[in-house]
Amino acid sequence: MQKKHHPFLALANILIFAAVIVFQTSELCDISIRTASPMLLLPLLCSYAFFSDIKRCVAAGMISGAFIDSISQGAYCFNTIILMLLAVGVCLAANNLFNKNIFAASVLSLMISLIYYIFLWLFFYLSGSDMESSVGYLLKYAIPSAVYSAVFVFPFYFIYNRFRKIKEH
Hints:
Layout: H1 7-26, H2 41-50, H3 54-71, H4 78-96, H5 102-125, H6 131-151, H7 153-168
Helix pairs in contact: 2-3, 2-4, 2-5, 2-7, 3-4, 4-5, 5-6, 5-7
């Protein structure tokens, strides 16, 4: 089935990504639960990549990662690279391994959230501190934050599933 080009959907994608990045970085509203603080960009990127093609996933991952890196201290392209790779991985898995249902999206969201936080721990926390505080960070912050982040895939999944249906009709 041939997909139609909808400029409204491109604008809606840009606005959704911008709103999530602004919400995430501005700290207007704290949605943390104890030590778990979600990164809303991960489930958003997962849902977007779940219904998109490789080129758009690379662009979305790189651009959103660059925005996060531009305001992060000491990240130096970490988010740009990891978000691009995670978006491509979700796209490839969704197109080749999984059915495009909510269960698959939630599994992929949990997987990329865990991968993101584990790499964040490996690059920034494991080498720079003693082992006790490093493992404490992993168990008390990183893993709960990854699970909490993955929960937010549900609203984004339904938004992008609706966008997919609009493209196909």
